[in-house]
Amino acid sequence: MSGAARILTVAGKEVLDTIRDRRAMLVTLLTAIAAGPVFLVLIFNMTASQADKARELKLPVMGSENAPALIAFLERSQVVIQAAPADYEAKIRAGDLDVALWIDPAFEADVAAGKAGTVRLVYDRSRDRARVAINSAESLLAAYNRLWGTQRLLLRGIATEVARPLKVEDIDLATPQQSGSLILFLVAFYGLFASMMGGMAPALDASAGERERGSLEPLLATPITPLQLALGKWAAIGIFDAVVVVLTLIGFYLTLNFAPLPAIGVPFLFGATELARFLWILAPLIALLSALLLYVGMRGRSLKEAQANVGVLLFVFTMLPFVQLMAQKREPAWLLWAPISAQYTLLSRALRGDAIPAIDWLQSALAPALVTVIALFAVARLLGRETVLGARS
Predict the structure, then answer these.
(1) Cα 240 to Cα 203: distance, rounded to the nearest angstrom
(2) What is the pTM of this model?
(3) CATH no. for residue 130?
(4) What Cα–Cα distance (Å) separates residue 283 from each residue in 196, 286, 313?
């Protein structure tokens, strides 16, 4: 039997072992199928809810009778004015109210005397869901402030340009598809996450699990070499991981193209082209993670220890995109050489509709390919030792 045939035999055996464990296989596959649609529905509903808050601002006001002109301006701006409860500050702290407006009882007297009227916008900016209402209220008060200042200048026969010497024109170069930055990040991140989770169960089963069941020793007793055994197991893990990633992306595709999602004002595209680009970008990462998970599983003394080690790997894996997002800096060119970060960068570009030159993909694939080879030789080295059946060397 040739070396390739032996590798395929081991891969087929590992795939059959995974299929035989129907409960674990079904849980993994069904999760992959359902997670994408559920994830997108939650994100779109959250975004739509925030947009609704921005469009239909409900503003509790304390002392609305003190500034009728301001109240009229807010109502013309489609703001729903409500009477603020006496304990509005406590309700804001508790999260029952997003924002409230307090108007000074001396507002009209100050205005009549040519002074500035005092209002207080009360909020808790630490609550994420309140930020849309807070920003809307701040913008409306700033608009009224500008309008009021302009009218005061005109009454005094002064050109309004005197108070506004700088004319600012905003030009947003982002396409509508590129505007949904939060959704772009989350979809790209979930694509990466699926490539990690898809290979975890079969990798642990083919390594530490097989050692605990005692089925690794008969494999080592066959004429197959340790490298061929490592390649066969890696191929089986990679196949299962790829299936999970494909199912996850198909879930994205079907949900975004056919599900009745709420309108969010962003024409978010994820068609057949984006699906193919995702698979193309994630292919090197699937190969890398399958090899790393197999190596980590082989290094564990037991299945429990292997699971703990994989948990550390999962933590590092999930933190890198968040670190990249929080850095708020222009991505350096060398980032395309870094595994995971490079794939996240290219996935984000794919979702934004940007072109991905072949050289960028090659750069992103080089390091994963190199680490994959190193990891597979390390697994083969472990399998070549007698201690692989017992304690870790």
Answers:
(1) 10
(2) 0.68
(3) 3.40.1710.10
(4) 12, 5, 19
- The tokens 């990249």 sit on which residue? 324
DSSP 208: I
Average pLDDT, rounded, for the chain: 80
> Do residues 370 and 198 lie in contact, with contact meaning Cβ atoms separated by under 8 Å?
no
Closest residue by Cα to residue 388 from 319, 306, 332: 306
pLDDT in tens, 281-308: 999 999 999 999 999 888 877 778 888 8
Residues 110 and 235 in one domain: no
Owning domain of residue 87: 56-171
Q: Which runs of consecutive H residues, i.e. helices, occur in the chain?
A: 3-20, 22-55, 68-76, 88-94, 107-112, 131-155, 181-204, 210-213, 216-220, 226-258, 272-299, 303-326, 341-352, 358-383
- % of residues, the chain, pLDDT over 70: 82
Does residue 219 share a domain with residue 254? yes
Same domain? 162 vs 308: no
Q: Which candidate, 296, 121, 53, 56, places its Cα nearest to that of 196?
A: 296
Q: Are residues 235 and 337 in the same domain?
A: yes
The pLDDT of residue 270 is above 50:
yes
Tens digits of per-residue pLDDT, 109-143?
A: 888 887 888 999 999 988 777 777 888 888 889 88
Please report where in the chains the tokens 């809810």 appear, as a residue. Answer: 49
